Amino acid sequence: MASRKLLLLPGDGIGPESMAEVKKLIAAMNADLNAGFETEEALVGGSAYDAHGQSISEADVATAMAADAVLFGAVGGPKWDSVPYEVRPEAGLLRLRKDMELFANLRPAICYPALAASSSLKPEVVEGLDILILRELTGGVYFGEPKEIIDLGNGQKRGVDTQVYETYEIERIAAAAFELARTRGNKVCSMEKRNVMKSGVLWNEVVTATHKNGYQDVELTHMLADAGGMQLVRWPKQFDVIVTDNLFGDMLSDVAAMLTGSLGMLPSASLGAPDAATGKRKALYEPVHGSAPDIAGQGIANPIAMIASFAMCLRYSFNMVAEADRLEAAISAVLDDGLRTRDIMSNGMTEVGTTQMGDAIVAKF
Ligand code: ATP
Ligand code: MG
Protein backbone atom coordinates (compact mmCIF):
# COMPACT_ATOMS: atom_id res chain seq x y z
CA MET A 1 0.00 0.00 0.00
CA ALA A 2 1.23 3.47 -0.88
CA SER A 3 2.29 5.68 1.98
CA ARG A 4 1.20 9.25 1.48
CA LYS A 5 2.51 11.80 3.95
CA LEU A 6 0.33 14.81 4.61
CA LEU A 7 1.07 17.69 6.95
CA LEU A 8 -2.11 19.42 8.11
CA LEU A 9 -1.76 23.04 9.20
CA PRO A 10 -5.29 24.16 10.14
CA GLY A 11 -4.21 27.59 11.47
CA ASP A 12 -6.61 30.14 12.90
CA GLY A 13 -10.21 31.32 12.61
CA ILE A 14 -12.25 29.12 10.29
CA GLY A 15 -9.09 27.20 9.27
CA PRO A 16 -9.61 24.40 11.83
CA GLU A 17 -13.36 24.23 11.14
CA SER A 18 -12.76 23.73 7.41
CA MET A 19 -9.87 21.32 7.96
CA ALA A 20 -12.09 19.14 10.16
CA GLU A 21 -14.22 18.38 7.08
CA VAL A 22 -11.13 17.36 5.08
CA LYS A 23 -10.06 15.07 7.93
CA LYS A 24 -13.35 13.21 7.54
CA LEU A 25 -12.55 12.65 3.86
CA ILE A 26 -9.03 11.45 4.64
CA ALA A 27 -10.38 8.98 7.22
CA ALA A 28 -13.00 7.73 4.76
CA MET A 29 -10.42 7.29 2.00
CA ASN A 30 -8.09 5.40 4.31
CA ALA A 31 -10.91 3.13 5.50
CA ASP A 32 -12.73 2.52 2.20
CA LEU A 33 -10.01 2.88 -0.43
CA ASN A 34 -6.94 1.84 1.53
CA ALA A 35 -5.46 5.20 0.49
CA GLY A 36 -2.62 5.08 3.01
CA PHE A 37 -2.67 8.73 4.07
CA GLU A 38 -0.41 9.35 7.05
CA THR A 39 -1.21 12.70 8.58
CA GLU A 40 0.67 14.86 10.99
CA GLU A 41 -0.86 18.03 12.35
CA ALA A 42 0.89 21.18 13.55
CA LEU A 43 0.16 24.74 14.59
CA VAL A 44 0.70 27.69 12.27
CA GLY A 45 -0.08 31.40 12.48
CA GLY A 46 -1.56 32.99 15.57
CA SER A 47 -2.26 29.68 17.29
CA ALA A 48 1.42 28.73 16.88
CA TYR A 49 2.48 32.13 18.23
CA ASP A 50 0.28 31.63 21.30
CA ALA A 51 1.76 28.19 21.90
CA HIS A 52 5.47 28.84 21.35
CA GLY A 53 6.09 32.43 20.22
CA GLN A 54 6.75 31.61 16.53
CA SER A 55 4.30 31.59 13.60
CA ILE A 56 5.72 28.18 12.66
CA SER A 57 8.34 26.10 14.47
CA GLU A 58 11.60 24.95 12.84
CA ALA A 59 10.59 21.33 13.40
CA ASP A 60 7.30 21.89 11.60
CA VAL A 61 9.05 23.58 8.67
CA ALA A 62 11.23 20.46 8.43
CA THR A 63 8.13 18.23 8.49
CA ALA A 64 6.60 20.33 5.70
CA MET A 65 9.77 19.95 3.61
CA ALA A 66 9.64 16.16 4.02
CA ALA A 67 5.88 15.72 3.47
CA ASP A 68 4.36 14.72 0.13
CA ALA A 69 1.96 17.63 0.53
CA VAL A 70 0.91 20.31 3.00
CA LEU A 71 -2.74 21.20 3.56
CA PHE A 72 -3.02 24.73 4.92
CA GLY A 73 -6.15 26.30 6.41
CA ALA A 74 -5.92 30.03 7.09
CA VAL A 75 -4.05 32.29 9.49
CA GLY A 76 -4.51 35.57 11.32
CA GLY A 77 -7.17 37.52 13.12
CA PRO A 78 -7.61 40.64 15.26
CA LYS A 79 -6.20 38.84 18.31
CA TRP A 80 -2.70 39.00 16.76
CA ASP A 81 -2.84 42.45 15.17
CA SER A 82 -0.13 43.78 17.46
CA VAL A 83 2.33 40.88 17.59
CA PRO A 84 5.86 41.69 16.33
CA TYR A 85 6.16 41.79 12.53
CA GLU A 86 8.61 38.85 12.23
CA VAL A 87 6.26 36.50 14.07
CA ARG A 88 2.93 37.81 12.72
CA PRO A 89 0.59 34.96 11.64
CA GLU A 90 1.25 35.40 7.89
CA ALA A 91 5.00 34.99 8.41
CA GLY A 92 4.57 31.22 8.81
CA LEU A 93 3.01 30.87 5.37
CA LEU A 94 5.59 33.15 3.72
CA ARG A 95 8.36 31.11 5.31
CA LEU A 96 6.90 27.89 3.88
CA ARG A 97 6.49 29.40 0.40
CA LYS A 98 10.11 30.53 0.44
CA ASP A 99 11.71 27.41 1.93
CA MET A 100 9.68 25.07 -0.27
CA GLU A 101 10.36 27.33 -3.32
CA LEU A 102 6.71 27.30 -4.36
CA PHE A 103 7.08 29.22 -7.62
CA ALA A 104 3.91 27.98 -9.32
CA ASN A 105 0.57 29.16 -7.98
CA LEU A 106 -2.48 27.38 -9.40
CA ARG A 107 -5.83 29.11 -9.14
CA PRO A 108 -8.65 27.21 -10.82
CA ALA A 109 -11.86 28.96 -11.71
CA ILE A 110 -14.54 26.29 -11.79
CA CYS A 111 -18.17 27.23 -12.05
CA TYR A 112 -20.46 24.61 -10.58
CA PRO A 113 -23.69 24.52 -12.63
CA ALA A 114 -25.88 25.11 -9.56
CA LEU A 115 -24.09 28.41 -8.88
CA ALA A 116 -23.90 29.73 -12.45
CA ALA A 117 -26.79 32.08 -11.82
CA SER A 118 -24.93 33.83 -8.98
CA SER A 119 -21.86 34.71 -11.08
CA SER A 120 -21.15 38.33 -11.93
CA LEU A 121 -21.51 37.30 -15.59
CA LYS A 122 -24.38 35.79 -17.56
CA PRO A 123 -25.00 32.10 -16.67
CA GLU A 124 -24.27 30.90 -20.23
CA VAL A 125 -20.86 32.58 -20.13
CA VAL A 126 -19.72 30.73 -16.99
CA GLU A 127 -21.77 27.54 -16.77
CA GLY A 128 -19.39 24.57 -16.92
CA LEU A 129 -16.38 26.87 -16.76
CA ASP A 130 -13.17 25.06 -15.77
CA ILE A 131 -9.99 27.05 -16.33
CA LEU A 132 -6.70 27.17 -14.48
CA ILE A 133 -4.63 30.31 -13.98
CA LEU A 134 -0.99 29.51 -13.35
CA ARG A 135 0.76 32.47 -11.74
CA GLU A 136 4.53 32.73 -11.30
CA LEU A 137 4.87 33.37 -7.56
CA THR A 138 8.48 33.98 -6.58
CA GLY A 139 9.82 36.45 -9.18
CA GLY A 140 8.89 39.51 -11.20
CA VAL A 141 8.11 43.02 -10.06
CA TYR A 142 7.10 42.00 -6.52
CA PHE A 143 10.65 40.89 -5.77
CA GLY A 144 12.96 42.60 -8.33
CA GLU A 145 15.70 44.98 -7.14
CA PRO A 146 16.03 47.93 -6.89
CA LYS A 147 12.81 48.44 -4.97
CA GLU A 148 12.77 51.76 -3.16
CA ILE A 149 11.41 55.26 -2.67
CA ILE A 150 14.05 57.87 -3.46
CA ASP A 151 13.78 61.43 -2.14
CA LEU A 152 14.70 63.68 -5.07
CA GLY A 153 15.14 66.67 -2.74
CA ASN A 154 12.90 69.09 -4.66
CA GLY A 155 9.68 68.06 -2.94
CA GLN A 156 9.49 65.13 -5.32
CA LYS A 157 10.00 61.45 -4.61
CA ARG A 158 10.49 58.52 -6.96
CA GLY A 159 8.95 55.11 -6.31
CA VAL A 160 10.86 52.31 -7.97
CA ASP A 161 9.96 48.67 -8.56
CA THR A 162 11.87 46.47 -10.95
CA GLN A 163 10.43 43.71 -13.12
CA VAL A 164 13.08 41.00 -13.48
CA TYR A 165 12.77 37.52 -14.97
CA GLU A 166 15.57 35.15 -15.80
CA THR A 167 15.40 32.31 -18.32
CA TYR A 168 15.23 29.53 -15.72
CA GLU A 169 12.32 31.15 -13.92
CA ILE A 170 10.26 31.36 -17.11
CA GLU A 171 11.31 27.88 -18.26
CA ARG A 172 10.14 26.17 -15.08
CA ILE A 173 6.75 27.91 -14.94
CA ALA A 174 6.22 27.25 -18.67
CA ALA A 175 7.09 23.55 -18.23
CA ALA A 176 4.68 23.38 -15.29
CA ALA A 177 1.96 24.93 -17.47
CA PHE A 178 2.44 22.39 -20.26
CA GLU A 179 2.46 19.48 -17.83
CA LEU A 180 -0.71 20.71 -16.14
CA ALA A 181 -2.39 21.24 -19.52
CA ARG A 182 -1.70 17.61 -20.43
CA THR A 183 -3.81 16.54 -17.42
CA ARG A 184 -6.69 18.82 -18.54
CA GLY A 185 -7.68 20.34 -21.87
CA ASN A 186 -4.15 20.31 -23.37
CA LYS A 187 -4.14 24.06 -24.16
CA VAL A 188 -1.91 26.81 -22.77
CA CYS A 189 -2.31 30.54 -23.33
CA SER A 190 0.72 32.57 -22.24
CA MET A 191 0.12 36.22 -21.32
CA GLU A 192 2.66 39.05 -21.12
CA LYS A 193 3.17 42.56 -22.52
CA ARG A 194 5.96 42.02 -25.05
CA ASN A 195 4.90 45.16 -26.88
CA VAL A 196 6.10 47.40 -24.03
CA MET A 197 8.23 45.26 -21.68
CA LYS A 198 11.62 43.60 -22.25
CA SER A 199 10.79 40.97 -19.64
CA GLY A 200 7.68 40.30 -21.72
CA VAL A 201 9.81 39.76 -24.84
CA LEU A 202 11.95 37.27 -22.93
CA TRP A 203 8.87 35.60 -21.41
CA ASN A 204 7.40 35.06 -24.87
CA GLU A 205 10.71 33.73 -26.27
CA VAL A 206 11.34 31.30 -23.43
CA VAL A 207 7.75 29.97 -23.33
CA THR A 208 7.96 29.39 -27.10
CA ALA A 209 11.35 27.65 -26.82
CA THR A 210 10.19 25.47 -23.90
CA HIS A 211 7.16 24.46 -25.96
CA LYS A 212 9.35 23.46 -28.94
CA ASN A 213 11.59 21.49 -26.63
CA GLY A 214 9.30 18.64 -25.57
CA TYR A 215 5.77 19.97 -25.29
CA GLN A 216 4.62 20.31 -28.91
CA ASP A 217 1.66 18.02 -28.24
CA VAL A 218 0.15 20.86 -26.17
CA GLU A 219 -1.55 23.73 -28.05
CA LEU A 220 0.18 27.04 -27.25
CA THR A 221 -1.16 30.52 -27.91
CA HIS A 222 0.03 33.96 -26.76
CA MET A 223 -1.98 37.03 -25.75
CA LEU A 224 -1.06 40.45 -24.52
CA ALA A 225 -2.11 40.48 -20.87
CA ASP A 226 -4.52 43.41 -21.22
CA ALA A 227 -6.32 41.77 -24.13
CA GLY A 228 -6.25 38.53 -22.12
CA GLY A 229 -8.07 40.22 -19.24
CA MET A 230 -10.73 41.41 -21.66
CA GLN A 231 -11.12 37.94 -23.20
CA LEU A 232 -11.32 36.37 -19.72
CA VAL A 233 -14.45 38.38 -19.01
CA ARG A 234 -15.88 38.21 -22.55
CA TRP A 235 -15.66 34.44 -23.11
CA PRO A 236 -13.67 32.64 -20.39
CA LYS A 237 -14.46 29.16 -21.74
CA GLN A 238 -11.98 29.72 -24.61
CA PHE A 239 -9.15 29.10 -22.10
CA ASP A 240 -7.78 25.96 -20.47
CA VAL A 241 -4.50 26.88 -18.73
CA ILE A 242 -3.35 30.51 -18.62
CA VAL A 243 0.29 31.00 -17.65
CA THR A 244 1.47 34.44 -16.67
CA ASP A 245 3.84 36.39 -14.43
CA ASN A 246 3.45 37.34 -10.78
CA LEU A 247 1.78 40.75 -11.28
CA PHE A 248 -0.55 39.88 -14.18
CA GLY A 249 -1.34 36.56 -12.48
CA ASP A 250 -2.33 38.32 -9.28
CA MET A 251 -4.84 40.45 -11.15
CA LEU A 252 -6.10 37.87 -13.65
CA SER A 253 -6.66 35.21 -10.97
CA ASP A 254 -8.79 37.62 -8.93
CA VAL A 255 -10.81 38.46 -12.02
CA ALA A 256 -11.28 34.76 -12.78
CA ALA A 257 -12.28 34.12 -9.16
CA MET A 258 -15.16 36.58 -9.41
CA LEU A 259 -16.53 34.74 -12.45
CA THR A 260 -17.46 31.83 -10.21
CA GLY A 261 -19.09 33.25 -7.07
CA SER A 262 -18.06 33.16 -3.40
CA LEU A 263 -14.66 33.32 -1.75
CA GLY A 264 -15.76 30.24 0.20
CA MET A 265 -15.63 28.15 -3.00
CA LEU A 266 -12.11 28.84 -4.26
CA PRO A 267 -9.17 26.45 -3.84
CA SER A 268 -5.51 26.97 -4.70
CA ALA A 269 -2.26 25.07 -4.94
CA SER A 270 1.35 26.21 -4.84
CA LEU A 271 3.95 23.89 -6.36
CA GLY A 272 7.73 23.72 -6.30
CA ALA A 273 10.16 22.23 -8.81
CA PRO A 274 10.17 18.48 -9.47
CA ASP A 275 12.81 16.70 -7.41
CA ALA A 276 15.69 15.59 -9.66
CA ALA A 277 15.65 12.02 -8.33
CA THR A 278 11.95 11.30 -7.72
CA GLY A 279 10.16 13.84 -9.93
CA LYS A 280 7.96 14.76 -6.95
CA ARG A 281 7.09 18.41 -6.39
CA LYS A 282 6.83 20.07 -3.02
CA ALA A 283 3.28 21.32 -2.71
CA LEU A 284 0.99 23.34 -0.48
CA TYR A 285 -2.79 23.46 -0.90
CA GLU A 286 -4.95 26.16 0.66
CA PRO A 287 -8.28 27.89 0.20
CA VAL A 288 -8.09 31.37 -1.35
CA HIS A 289 -10.08 32.85 1.55
CA GLY A 290 -8.59 34.01 4.85
CA SER A 291 -9.38 33.13 8.44
CA ALA A 292 -12.73 35.00 8.38
CA PRO A 293 -12.65 36.04 12.05
CA ASP A 294 -16.13 37.55 11.69
CA ILE A 295 -17.70 34.08 11.37
CA ALA A 296 -15.12 31.88 13.16
CA GLY A 297 -16.46 29.49 15.79
CA GLN A 298 -20.07 29.75 14.59
CA GLY A 299 -20.11 26.59 12.50
CA ILE A 300 -21.26 28.46 9.38
CA ALA A 301 -18.05 28.64 7.32
CA ASN A 302 -18.21 27.14 3.83
CA PRO A 303 -15.78 24.19 3.82
CA ILE A 304 -15.88 23.76 0.00
CA ALA A 305 -12.75 25.85 -0.73
CA MET A 306 -10.75 23.66 1.68
CA ILE A 307 -12.28 20.44 0.35
CA ALA A 308 -11.66 21.52 -3.26
CA SER A 309 -8.05 22.30 -2.26
CA PHE A 310 -7.78 18.69 -1.07
CA ALA A 311 -9.16 17.56 -4.44
CA MET A 312 -6.30 19.49 -6.08
CA CYS A 313 -3.91 17.71 -3.71
CA LEU A 314 -5.25 14.32 -4.83
CA ARG A 315 -4.88 15.37 -8.47
CA TYR A 316 -1.48 17.06 -8.45
CA SER A 317 0.47 15.48 -5.58
CA PHE A 318 -0.81 11.89 -5.71
CA ASN A 319 -2.04 11.50 -9.28
CA MET A 320 -5.35 10.24 -7.83
CA VAL A 321 -7.25 11.67 -10.78
CA ALA A 322 -10.36 9.49 -10.50
CA GLU A 323 -10.71 10.32 -6.80
CA ALA A 324 -10.21 14.05 -7.46
CA ASP A 325 -12.86 13.96 -10.19
CA ARG A 326 -15.24 12.12 -7.86
CA LEU A 327 -14.69 14.59 -5.05
CA GLU A 328 -15.39 17.54 -7.34
CA ALA A 329 -18.48 15.71 -8.63
CA ALA A 330 -19.60 15.19 -5.01
CA ILE A 331 -19.32 18.94 -4.36
CA SER A 332 -21.32 19.61 -7.50
CA ALA A 333 -24.00 17.04 -6.57
CA VAL A 334 -24.46 18.49 -3.08
CA LEU A 335 -24.96 21.94 -4.62
CA ASP A 336 -27.42 20.44 -7.13
CA ASP A 337 -29.36 19.06 -4.15
CA GLY A 338 -29.79 22.66 -2.98
CA LEU A 339 -27.52 22.59 0.08
CA ARG A 340 -25.91 25.98 0.75
CA THR A 341 -23.79 27.49 3.46
CA ARG A 342 -24.77 31.04 4.35
CA ASP A 343 -22.21 32.72 2.04
CA ILE A 344 -23.78 31.10 -1.05
CA MET A 345 -27.38 30.93 0.20
CA SER A 346 -30.14 31.97 -2.17
CA ASN A 347 -33.93 31.77 -2.35
CA GLY A 348 -35.45 28.31 -2.18
CA MET A 349 -32.20 26.60 -1.15
CA THR A 350 -31.50 24.75 2.13
CA GLU A 351 -29.11 26.49 4.51
CA VAL A 352 -26.65 24.17 6.25
CA GLY A 353 -23.66 24.59 8.55
CA THR A 354 -20.02 23.63 8.01
CA THR A 355 -20.28 20.06 9.32
CA GLN A 356 -23.53 19.30 7.50
CA MET A 357 -22.00 20.50 4.23
CA GLY A 358 -18.89 18.39 4.88
CA ASP A 359 -20.94 15.32 5.82
CA ALA A 360 -23.09 15.66 2.70
CA ILE A 361 -19.98 15.80 0.48
CA VAL A 362 -18.41 12.78 2.22
CA ALA A 363 -21.69 10.88 1.75
CA LYS A 364 -21.77 11.62 -2.02
CA PHE A 365 -18.07 10.85 -2.52
P1 ATP B 1 -6.99 37.55 4.63
O1 ATP B 1 -6.34 38.86 4.85
O2 ATP B 1 -6.55 36.48 5.57
O3 ATP B 1 -7.02 37.12 3.20
P2 ATP B 1 -9.50 38.80 4.40
O4 ATP B 1 -9.76 39.88 5.35
O5 ATP B 1 -9.10 39.10 3.02
O6 ATP B 1 -8.49 37.77 5.06
P3 ATP B 1 -11.35 36.61 4.61
O7 ATP B 1 -10.92 36.14 5.94
O8 ATP B 1 -11.11 35.73 3.47
O9 ATP B 1 -10.81 38.00 4.28
O10 ATP B 1 -12.89 36.98 4.66
C1 ATP B 1 -13.51 37.94 3.81
C2 ATP B 1 -15.03 37.80 3.94
O11 ATP B 1 -15.45 36.59 3.32
C3 ATP B 1 -15.49 37.73 5.38
O12 ATP B 1 -16.70 38.41 5.55
C4 ATP B 1 -15.67 36.28 5.61
O13 ATP B 1 -16.62 35.98 6.59
C5 ATP B 1 -16.08 35.73 4.25
N1 ATP B 1 -15.56 34.37 4.05
C6 ATP B 1 -14.28 34.03 3.78
N2 ATP B 1 -14.15 32.71 3.70
C7 ATP B 1 -15.37 32.18 3.93
C8 ATP B 1 -15.88 30.85 3.98
N3 ATP B 1 -15.10 29.78 3.79
N4 ATP B 1 -17.18 30.69 4.24
C9 ATP B 1 -17.99 31.75 4.43
N5 ATP B 1 -17.58 33.01 4.40
C10 ATP B 1 -16.28 33.25 4.13
MG1 MG C 1 -7.50 38.65 1.68
TrEMBL record:
It catalyses: (2R,3S)-3-isopropylmalate + NAD(+) = 4-methyl-2-oxopentanoate + CO2 + NADH. SMART domains: Iso_dh. It comes from the Bacteria. NAD(+) binds at residues 77-90, 290-302. Its main location: cytoplasm. The keyword S-adenosyl-L-methionine does not apply. GO terms for cellular component: cytosol. GO terms for molecular function: 3-isopropylmalate dehydrogenase activity; magnesium ion binding; NAD binding. Residues 5-361 form the Isopropylmalate dehydrogenase-like domain. Transmembrane segments: none annotated. Keywords: Amino-acid biosynthesis, Branched-chain amino acid biosynthesis, Cytoplasm, Leucine biosynthesis, Magnesium, Manganese, Metal-binding, NAD, Oxidoreductase. PROSITE patterns: IDH_IMDH (PS00470). Its cofactor is Mn(2+); Mg(2+). HAMAP family: LeuB_type1 (MF_01033). Belongs to the isocitrate and isopropylmalate dehydrogenases family. LeuB type 1 subfamily. This is 3-isopropylmalate dehydrogenase. It comes from Aquamicrobium aerolatum DSM 21857.
